[in-house]
């Protein structure tokens, strides 16, 4: 049974928190005196009013713990409203039209990193900070943060926690889900600060280092510069960014195990090994292609560039140090293949996730063995655990929904007037929360010239990819709302 008042109440709290986050961009707004403070004050007032209205309409009852459907509704509705509210500063500033502002905000909170801004140079620093900060909030998840600070969520908090974190399963690190949420956000904050210090040591000024750290650890990829990471003409800085993009694509639960002295949990994890091996193979083949074709003469340079772009795309960060769409066709194909891989479950990266690919390959292997031994029993095991048929069915269903949605998105974007290559790669990029694309966008371009309809379609694809479909799609089923 759906409880509309409870849904409104919890959504109101989340909207209020989002509104309070507008206070942080006021610091660079006043510090640099660019006249942008009014945009964030107005955004704060609007979001506070909306949150207060939802709290007034809603309310907690005696049985106030959100149930399964209530929790799904809160996640889906909240993420949609948060992304819309996040577009307010862009709209009020006049730097972006409403459709581009919505696209930029959805891209930020989903940690996609695709931008509708053609030239970042005239953008005020407060807006640049807001872009990066929205990615940082969306990377680990606003609702996961709310679960950590709102003690009354109870059992429903666990459902919302699992609905927002990426991957088919989210392990609890503590018996209470609120404790798990606090640990994850604590690790996230510590790694952000560590990255910030390393970037400062590389010569970046404080503002650039903050924005770069927020975008990198969240595997979002927004940059303050049109050249992205290539702007930092420093192998040290680019190397630090590369390492933390990779770290952001690994489950943060494994870092907690590492902190407790269980290094094997991280080093021997099947997903981590799969992702590492895949990145090395792609980078080695791509670098060989670059050298053989004469695109690059130095094998070391070719390997570094290949590894950076591969890690960036696989982690769905979308930063770049070179335009890989101008590389040989084999290198392009290998990196584009990584659009469909993603990082590990429980990380800040988007995409399909390595665990699903592992389970898919193991399921195919089991099917082949059954053909050879029809009466044999062959369980699918991962990390020493037998995977239930329900989990395996969920993996197959996810792949079906993922690629079906991509096909529909491609058709819809094509209908807006864009060519097939651009539409397909943009849909794949948006759904995988990657950022760069092929065709008109390329690895270094923007979506500024896309039609308004295409921007809205891709914005919805970003949201679907970030929530991994179910928490948002169920809102459109009439039976979901029936008592």
Q: Which structural class do the helices and strands define?
A: mainly alpha
Shape: globular
* Secondary-structure element series: HHHHHHHHHHHHHHHHHHEEHHHHH
Largest sheet, in brief, is: 2 strands, antiparallel
Q: Which sequence of strands runs across the widest sheet?
A: 1-2
Strand-residue proportion:
under 5%
* Mean pLDDT rating: 87
Task: Supply Rg.
Answer: 22 Å
Provide a quick synopsis of the model.
With 483 residues, the chain is an all-alpha fold. The chain has 23 helices and two strands. Strands 1-2 form a two-stranded antiparallel ribbon.
Summary keywords:
mainly alpha; globular; 483 residues; two-stranded antiparallel ribbon; 23 helices
Give a description of the structure:
The relative contact order is 0.11. The chain has 483 residues and is mainly alpha-helical. The N and C termini lie close together (5 Å). The protein is 64% helix and 1% strand. The longest helix is centred in the last third of the chain and has 27 residues, at 389-415. A two-stranded antiparallel sheet has the order 1-2. A hairpin with a 2-residue loop joins β1 and β2. α15 (270-293) runs antiparallel to α17, α16 (299-314) packs parallel to α17 and α19 (389-415) runs antiparallel to α20 (420-431). The mean pLDDT is 87.
